[in-house]
Structures are given as structure tokens and as C-alpha cells.
Design brief:
six-stranded antiparallel sheet; alpha+beta; two-stranded antiparallel sheet; 36 helices
Length: about 850
């Protein structure tokens, strides 16, 4: 009889055999099958696979190593058998040494003696051909094939001396991201096999071994003994499919493999098995509790495989508290953080691979790998949670009899009507939202209509200001959409460097999102980070620091310490500390963040690149220009490659590097780089952009350093006029321009004019930065020096006392004790005590030896 028709008889015999004691099973099977050799082969195959279910993650090449029971050395062709590595359902695997034409160790696979039925030989020969046509670094290579003198088929393949992928990852304590990168290699190898029309059909950790190449893990897929050739590869080869048979390993096999009514196994079967491997890599557990299967009938086990949905990985890891700490430790994280890492995208990806219906899985291993890489690259994933309607459909199909008895056709009609109503409300809600967006945007740009503008030129700033005022009335009915629009407009204000206006809108954004989405939602946290940035840009560093420290705590707990948002917020915190003049703290934190971003996100990620630049800036602020120079040169090369030579992010580093070259006295190189930067910035941003003003200021400092004082002063005064007109009298760039002019006037011994310029700069810095900021203290000190040079000791002593009380740097202290500019104050009754006070403060603030 045909195999599908024979299945009920096979199922009956296997079920009865499993109820027998293991020692009695062979005689029972012989009696039940009689002289029917094919029926007996099917039953024995099922029993062997069922018994092997305990070793779901064992390594067949290592864990089952035994010695040759005969103790004799055996040779097959050019291969000397060393010892047996394992025994499978269709043969033995031996570690052998090849003696010619090359000497190397191989894995030699032979069909078990006495099992030379035609189907088994055909499957073995197909495995030979399958491996021979595949050439991929993730698939173990086949070297040779043949038969022994007594007709026993064999083939020699690459010997992979490595543990299963799950054991390797746990032993090395690989993080979730590191495990996913290794898993992508496996997907690539399976995809290659599919392109060669080969389905593995028995993917599991023990068939995915890991070795290390140049210190990096490399996966190797072995054992294509159950592979199904989807097209013939050799003349006269017959396609085989063990229809009605139990092909695969329980726990890793797909629902269609467990269904005797399904005859067409395709590539999505391997996608399902990859999903089980992914589930185990993420959680340390299988989707199903296979320990209970030994006490259940085979048909019940197969029914579970076909019908039971697995739990989400994030749910699974928290169920057993006794083992959760060990599993999390093997993934270099904490139990609470592990669940948070898996919740969301990784849940969706894993469950999509484990869909019972093949059409709802990823179509190919490459599609699965692409979605994993989307997750690793912080991009949206293609997987999505199943809809309520789909869940209802699955429930009805799984419990069709119960639903028919208890509910009947009427209940199904009611359920359908309810779902249709829900779907209609969803469509109506989305339509209303689209209408609200359209109405708001139409009203937003109505000011640019000629009838509204009345002949006036309307700027983007005016359109933005009008819309910000009207957003409450326009989007009051949809708070979530209102928050999105507020965030977008806040970002635009930030781009225009209107930080106060940006703060107002972003504050509203965060308040709405905390209420609607929750305070720990990733969207809320991202908006809060943007708000802290706007506050920092307004020089309210203490407030920004508090916000950023709170955000780091929340994101570390909810998203994980290595999440991109957590790392970016820590980088922002380092920047804020540097702006506040706390350079040593900023450097320590900046280095830690940069190293972690390189490891987690990669060196070409935009956040990693920016953190490297911030570290260089903190170093130059501490006078370590040589270190900063090296880092900025490397950073500039990366930005030119990743962003492009004229990208804004590239130009800002060119400006930074030129400033460092000035610090190092490389004036011609700095002037050349400033000129290149200025030309590109003017072309990209326009002549009145603040970045252009900053570059002009820096170019003027190079002229000053080269003693070209008249040229420097002329350029500085041109920039000052633009700063006052474009930025206002209280902007830091205006203060810097005045400071630079005073410095040039000092070099030209025009001290009285320098006092006027520097006094105005100090007034701005006190208002903007505060009296204790290092830049303010430096300016006050130099103003005191100018008053001393103009023989105004009272003012000089007053400003010097202010500078000393807020802490002088070491260079200024040495200048105060020995510098010639202070000779008019020597002998003044208040001068010497000030020097002593400055020395005491410097000694108290000096770093303690480690």
C-alpha cells in the first residue's frame, strides 16, 4: 500500500511500541510488522527519531565519541579510521585521517551495516551530491565519495572541531547582538543551499557547529543526511520524499514535517527550524517543553507541533526565576534587561519564523537574515504582530470542533460582524487622522498665499511661528498626532538654531507623549533627549545634565545599557559636561561611550562618529592638542567616506581640525584648511550662517598668530558686525568675537581700546555662561591684566579677585606670579595676598595621586 494510506497503521504500531519497555520493543515491532520490510523500516525510523528527541542540542561529533569496539585499526580507501564520532539514524560518522594525495583529518560518514535498503542508499547518495554542489563558508565541504569493497557507501567531508552554536555562545557569553550576527551567517549558508535546490530538513544546534577563524566565530552547517533535493542533480536520480514518515528532529521540525497529510516540504521548512534555533539562542530554551514528550503518545506530540503556538521569547525567559539569572549571565546581561532586549522587534522576528502557516513565515532565510540585520542596524523590522482577526482565525481552526459545538454558526457570524466593525472604526480613524493632517498643513501654508501675504515676502520662520501658535486648535482632538507635529516643528527650530522656541514645543511634546504613550516608551525617551539638547544649547548645563542623567538611568533599565538610545544619551551627557567646563569627567565618560558604540553599533555609525569627535574636542580643551589631532584626522577620513566631502558633518570636523592645527602652531596648514572649509560652508549654508561666522572668526585667529594684526582686526570687526545683526548682542559667538578683537588690540599695545572690547565680552559671558565658567574666568583674568597695563589698579585688583575666587588655571597662575604685565601692581597691598589665595585654591583643586 502507498505510504499516506499506510500512515494510520504506522501510527498505531509506533504508539503501541512506545508503551512497551525499551528492551521489548524490537520483538514487538517484528511481530506487528510481520514480513513487511518497508512497514518495519518506517516504524523503526520513527522510533529511532522519537528516542533521539532527548539529545536535541547534543553535538553528534563530540558528545557521543566512543572508541572502536573491535580495537582494530580499519582502513577504507585512503582513509584510516581513528575513532567513531557518532551514530545517526542512517549511519556512522568517524574521525579519519586521509593519507593521500594529501594528509589531513576528515569526517567519514558510512551507512550502518545491515541497513542497505534502496531508500536509505538513495538518500545517502543524495546527501553526497547535495554537499558536492555547495560551496559556502558556512557549509562543511565534501572532499570525496565512494564505496567500500563490500558495497558500503561513504563520503569524506570537512571535520569541524567545534561545539554546537548554542554551546559556543553560552560558553563565550556572547551578547544578544553578537549571537544575532553569528545567526546571520547560518541564514546565509542555508540560503546558499536553497539556491542549489537543497533543503536541509534537520537544522538544529548540533548540526550547526562553530569554530574560530582569526579569533572570530565562524559557523559550519553539517549533516545533510535528511536533505531533500528539490530537483534532480544526477542523470536518472529520482526525487525522494519520505511521505508519511517522520523526517527531522522533534522540537526543531516544522509543523508540516509533523503532518502526514502534507507531502510538499519546501524551503520554508528550514526557515521554521532556523526560528527554533534563533529562539534557543535568545532565550536558552526551546519553544516547547520537550521533557514531557516521553510520557505522551507520538500522535499527541505531533499534534502539539502542528497546533500549539509558542510563547513570546520575552515571556519565556521570565517564567523560571531559578534559571533566569544563569541564562541572562550567558548573554552578558541581567534577567530584567534580557526580557527588555527581547521584547518588541526580536519577539516579532522570532514568532514570524515560527508561524504554523508557511505563507506567514519569512519566504527565505535571506529575508529572515535581512530583518535581523534591520534590527542590528536600528531600522524598522518587516515582521509585525499578527492582527486580532488573524488570531481569531487561528483559534477557530485549532478548536473547530469545540467552536462548532458550543457556538455554532451564529456565534461565528457575530464574531465576524464584530471584527468588521473594529476594522471599519480603524479605517475611519485613520481617514480622520489623514484629514486632520491635511487641514493643518493647508492652514500652515495659507500665510504664503498671495491674498494672505498681501505682497510681503514670507519666510519659513514666519510659517513655522504661525503654525506653532495654531497647533492647539488644529490638532486638539488627536494628542498623539499633535505630539508628532510638535516634535517635527521643534526639530526645525533647532535646525534654525532657535533653541528657546524649540524647547517650548519639545516640552509640550514630552508632556503629551508621557501621558499618551507612557514615560518609558522609546518615542518619549527620544523626545526627552532632544529637549535636553535644546536646554544645553541655551547654556543651562546643570539642568541639561540632570535630565540626561535621569534619561540614561531609564533607558538603561528599559532598553538595555547597550541600546543605541542609551549610548547616544550618555554621549550627550559627556558633551554637556565638557560645555560646562568639567573636562576630566567628560573625557572619562566620552571614552567609555565611544568604545561601547564601536563594539555595539560599529565604527561607521553616525552616533559613534560623533562621539569620537566630541572626545577629541574635550582633549584639546585640556591642552592635549596632539592627541586631539590624531583623533580628528581619523574622524575626518571616516566622515568623508561615510557622509561625503561637503556634508555638514564633514565640514564641522574640518573646522575643528584647523583649530587644533592652530594650537600646534601649524599656521599655514590651518589657514589652508580654514579656507577650504569656508568655501564649502558658504556654498552649502549661505554667507550669513553661524557656521560661516565661526569659521571666519577662526580664520582671523590664524592671521593673528602669524602677526598679521591689521588683517586679523579687519576681519574680526566684519564678523562682529554680522554677529550683532544676525545673532544679537547676547550670543556666545558675539562674545567670542569681542574677545578676539581685544586680543588683537593687546598684541598691538592698544590697551585702552582692548579694555572696552573685552569688558563687553565679559558682560555677555557672565550673563550667558555664569561667572564660574572657565571661559568667563579666563576673560575676567585678561581684563584685569589690561586694567593693570592701563594703570587702573583698583579695577585690576577687583577683576583679579573675581577671577581668583572662581579658580585660575595653572598657566594663568604662573603668569600672575612672573608675568611682566603685572609689574604696575607689584607692591600694591592687595596684590600679594591674591597670589597666595590663588595658590591655595590651585593646590586644593589639584588632582589627588592615584
Amino acid at each position: 500500500m502507498e505510504k499516506p494510506k499506510r500512515w494510520p497503521r504506522i501510527n498505531e504500531i509506533v504508539g503501541a511500541a512506545l508503551e512497551q519497555e525499551p528492551a521489548n520493543r524490537p520483538s514487538f515491532v517484528s511481530q506487528a510488522c510481520g514480513q513487511n520490510a518497508e512497514l518495519r523500516a518506517e516504524v523503526e525510523s520513527l522510533l529511532a527519531a522519537y528516542v533521539d528527541a532527548d539529545g536535541l542540542s547534543g553535538n553528534p561529533w563530540v558528545a557521543t565519541t566512543v572508541a572502536d569496539p573491535t580495537g582494530e585499526t580499519k582502513t577504507i580507501g585512503p582513509y584510516r579510521l581513528i575513532h567513531r564520532l557518532g551514530v545517526g539514524g542512517m549511519g556512522q560518522v568517524w574521525l579519519a585521517e586521509q593519507t593521500e594525495p594529501v594528509r589531513r583529518r576528515v569526517a567519514l560518514k558510512l551507512i550502518r551495516p545491515g541497513l542497505y535498503d534502496s531508500a536509505l542508499v538513495q538518500r545517502f547518495q543524495s546527501e553526497q551530491q547535495s554537499l558536492a554542489i555547495m560551496e559556502h563558508p558556512a557549509i562543511a565541504k565534501v572532499f570525496d565519495a565512494g564505496t567500500t569493497p563490500d558495497g558500503q557507501p561513504y563520503f569524506a567531508m570537512e571535520y569541524v572541531d567545534g561545539p554546537p552554536i548554542t554551546n559556543y555562545c553560552d560558553r563565550k557569553k556572547l551578547s544578544i547582538r553578537e549571537r544575532l550576527k553569528l545567526f546571520v551567517q547560518v541564514c546565509d549558508g542555508v540560503q546558499h543551499a536553497h539556491q542549489k535546490a537543497i533543503i536541509h530538513r534537520d537544522l538544529k544546534p548540533s548540526n550547526i557547529l562553530v569554530t574560530e577563524v582569526d579569533g572570530k566565530p565562524a559557523s559550519r552547517i553539517i549533516d545533510f543526511g535528511l536533505a531533500k533535493a528539490t530537483v534532480p542533480h544526477a542523470a536518472g536520480e529520482t526525487l525522494y520524499t519520505h511521505v508519511g514518515g517522520f523526517v527531522g528532529t522533534p522540537g526543531y521540525m516544522s509543523p508540516e514535517q509533523a503532518d502526514p497529510a502534507i507531502h510538499d516540504i519546501d524551503t520554508r521548512t528550514d526557515v521554521y527550524s532556523l526560528g527554533v534555533v534563533l529562539y534557543e539562542l535568545l532565550t536558552g530554551l526551546l519553544p516547547f517543553d520537550t521533557s514531557q514528550w516521553k510520557t505522551q503518545r507520538l500522535d499527541e506530540v505531533l499534534r502539539q507541533l502542528r497546533e500549539t503556538d509558542p510563547k513570546r521569547p520575552s515571556t519565556k525567559v521570565g517564567e523560571n526565576r531559578d534559571t533566569s539569572t544563569g541564562r541572562a549571565g550567558a548573554r552578558s546581561t541581567e534577567p530584567s534587561q534580557l526580557a527588555g532586549l527581547l521584547r518588541g522587534d526580536l519577539d516579532w522576528i522570532t514568532l514570524k519564523t515560527l508561524e504554523k502557516e508557511r505563507d506567514r513565515r519569512y519566504g527565505t532565510p535571506s529575508a529572515l537574515a535581512a530583518d535581523v540585520e534591520n534590527y542590528l542596524g536600528n531600522r524598522p523590522v518587516e515582521a509585525r504582530p499578527a492582527s486580532n482577526f488573524y488570531r481569531l482565525q487561528k483559534y477557530v481552526r485549532r478548536h473547530a470542533v469545540v467552536v462548532a459545538v458550543t457556538s455554532g454558526a451564529a456565534a461565528l457570524l457575530v464574531a465576524f460582524a464584530v471584527m468588521q466593525s473594529i476594522e471599519l472604526r480603524r479605517i475611519t480613524r485613520e481617514r480622520d487622522r489623514a484629514d486632520r493632517i491635511t487641514d493643518f498643513m493647508t492652514n500652515m501654508f495659507a500665510v504664503s498665499d498671495p491674498s494672505e501675504a498681501r505682497g510681503n515676502s514670507i519666510t519659513a520662520r514666519e510659517i513655522l511661528d504661525k503654525s506653532a501658535k495654531e497647533i492647539d486648535s488644529g490638532l486638539a482632538k488627536d494628542p498623539e498626532l499633535k505630539a508628532q507635529m510638535l516634535q517635527v516643528m521643534g526639530s526645525v527650530y533647532e535646525g534654525l538654531e532657535l533653541h528657546a522656541r524649540a524647547e517650548t514645543l519639545l516640552l509640550q511634546t514630552v508632556e503629551i507623549q508621557r501621558r499618551v504613550l507612557g514615560p518609558e516608551h522609546p518615542t518619549t525617551l527620544a523626545s526627552a533627549r532632544q529637549l535636553a539638547w535644546a536646554i544645553s544649547e541655551q547654556h543651562r548645563y546643570a539642568e541639561a545634565e540632570t535630565m540626561e542623567r535621569d534619561l540614561v538611568g531609564v533607558t538603561s533599565r528599559t532598553l538595555g545599557p547597550d541600546h543605541a538610545i542609551t549610548l547616544a544619551t550618555e554621549s550627550d551627557l559627556s558633551r554637556t559636561l565638557g560645555l560646562a567646563g568639567r573636562y576630566a569627567e567628560a573625557e572619562v565618560l566620552g571614552r567609555k561611550v565611544f568604545e561601547r558604540q564601536q563594539r555595539v553599533l560599529g565604527p561607521d555609525d553616525s552616533e559613534t562618529i560623533e562621539s569620537q569627535r566630541r572626545l577629541a574636542i574635550v582633549l584639546v580643551q585640556q591642552g592635549r592638542s596632539e592627541e586631539s589631532d590624531k583623533i580628528l584626522h581619523a574622524n575626518l577620513a571616516i566622515r568623508r567616506r561615510v557622509f561625503g566631502p561637503d556634508a555638514p558633518k564633514t565640514l564641522e570636523v574640518m573646522d575643528d581640525l584647523a583649530s587644533v592645527l592652530v594650537e600646534e602652531g601649524q599656521y599655514p596648514e590651518a589657514e589652508k584648511l580654514y579656507s577650504q572649509t569656508l568655501e564649502a560652508e558658504t556654498r552649502v549654508f549661505g554667507p550669513d550662517a553661524q557656521r560661516v561666522l565661526n569659521t571666519l572668526l577662526n580664520s582671523a585667529t590664524v592671521l593673528e598668530a602669524e602677526h598679521r594684526y591689521p588683517e586679523s582686526e579687519t576681519l574680526q570687526r566684519e564678523v562682529l558686525a554680522k554677529c550683532r545683526r544676525l545673532l544679537g548682542p547676547n550670543h556666545p559667538t558675539t562674545a567670542l568675537s569681542l574677545y578676539n578683537i581685544a586680543d588683537v588690540l593687546y598684541e598691538e599695545h592698544r590697551y585702552a581700546e582692548a579694555v572696552v572690547a573685552l569688558q563687553e565680552s565679559v558682560d555677555i559671558q557672565r550673563r550667558v555662561f555664569g561667572p564660574a565658567h572657565p571661559d568667563t574666568v579666563d576673560s575676567v583674568y585678561h581684563l584685569a591684566r589690561l586694567y593693570a597695563l592701563t594703570r587702573r589698579p583698583r579695577e585690576a585688583i577687583s577683576f583679579l579677585h573675581d577671577a581668583v575666587s572662581h579658580g585660575l588655571d595653572e598657566e594663568s597662575l604662573e603668569d600672575l606670579k612672573k608675568g611682566p604685565d603685572w609689574k604696575t601692581l607689584r607692591g600694591q597691598p592687595d596684590f600679594e595676598p591674591l597670589i597666595g589665595e590663588a595658590q591655595k585654591l590651585a593646590s586644593a583643586n589639584a588632582p589627588k595621586p592615584q
